[in-house]
Amino acid sequence: MPTRELLEQEYNKLKEELLLNLGKIIACPSVYDASTIAPHIPFGKGIDSCLDTTLKICDDLGLKTFKDPSGYYGYAEIGEGKELVGVLCHLDVVPVDDGEEWYDSPFKLIQKDEQLIARGVADDKGPTMVALYALKALMNLNFTFSKRIRFIFGTDEERLWQCIYKYIENEEIPQQGITPDSSFPVIYAEKGLLQFTIEGSGEAITLKGGGAFNVVPSSIIYTGEKQEELAKELSRLNYAHTQNTDNITVQGKTAHAADVENGINPISRLMTALYNIGYHSPCVDFVAEYIKESPYGEHLFGIIEDEDSGKLKTNLASVNIDEDNAVLSFDFRIPVNTNIEALVSKLEGITTPYGLRYRFYDSAPSLYIPKDSELIKNLCAIYHEVTGLDTTPLAIGGATYSRAMQNFVSYGMLFPDSGHSSHQKNEYLRLRDIEPAFIIYSKALAYLGQKIEKQIIHDL
After folding, report:
1. Is 195 helix (H, G, I), strand (E, B) or coil?
2. pLDDT tens sequence across 237-283
3. In which domain, by residue range, is 140 found?
4. Do 392 and 345 share a structural domain?
5. Is 388 left (phi over 0), alpha (psi -120 to 50) or beta?
6. SS3 179
7. Banded pLDDT at 167 (limits 50, 70, 90)
8. How many domains does the structure of the chain reveal?
9. Terminus of the chain with fewer CB atoms < 10 Å: N or C?
């Protein structure tokens, strides 16, 4: 195992190049873009360009690279042996809300107040580049890998995971590995994911707002009738809003759907206020009576939670209502011991009387790896060795690639005091987090890349 002193020396040699190349992949606006889909470009030109740029960086670092001919994924590999270890990363990012005000272009990496700021710098381009250069440090130190280490670059993680499913269909599956797309010390449980729409016939109101399933919207604009009455009700409820000549904007606070309690949902607020002033429609009534402002879905199901992964979380992500159709989009994060089919059945029983119907969009199973497994214990030991911090494994509501394969866990790179900025305006990565994460990933890849049988690195 390389010493901390040697890894610190390598970090100081590599950090300028690391940040330069992070800026290069940040500059690729890797948002799903249906308008630029083409043969071998399944998710749009921005994502394809980011994949090509990342693989070129890996080539320059001395790794063997491969790009899926259909454009769904790529990977970079080093090492020898039959066993394969994976590092699952993703290069796509969530869209930038037009109403968000950034310090600079979201796709330009800038430094401000000891933070790196850009869309994707935390989720997941920054952690990806830190882990990749942690591997380069081992290469520079002539570390001998008795297993192969493969960085797998996904391109559709923020939507439907088609990239990773295509990889699983076509490629060799690693025996174990990590996903640098969450928090330290390690994630042992992830809630189940369910994304769906509630749909109905057209309504007299026209209302459109929100975006990605996994993001709390930042605002919604209302252009319908009764604006004066609505503005008074919004003020009475103490809901932030601005009134212009012909519209009202209801402000919210964006957040990742996994941390929905940290956000404020403007769609729920607008529909509650409309309901209160006497506007009734199937969608407005359903939201005002069953969704309300709670992030935990208790008006639908009562409080649902378990000891390992906490409470059910619900996000009303978007609304699209006109005279022809009515669609509400939702993202639920479901405790690992909860039966998803039973929840859907109850939800259908509630929506049917409103003339609304449930339509499945996407789901992902929960993840659970025992806290006393060797993988969890060794990764926690490495984290403790570098930081001296508490190593209690965590459960989260986020859905990472770890659940796509067996014996994978999410591992950093957020520290307990880093703060969460994924999917938010001015998304950031703290500069002071990069070096310790770099050292942790170097040691973790050294551990994963060697044949170590039933060994705990340190007795905790």
Report:
1. strand
2. 999 999 999 999 999 999 989 899 999 999 999 999 999 999 999 99
3. 4-190+367-448
4. no
5. left
6. strand
7. very high
8. 2
9. C
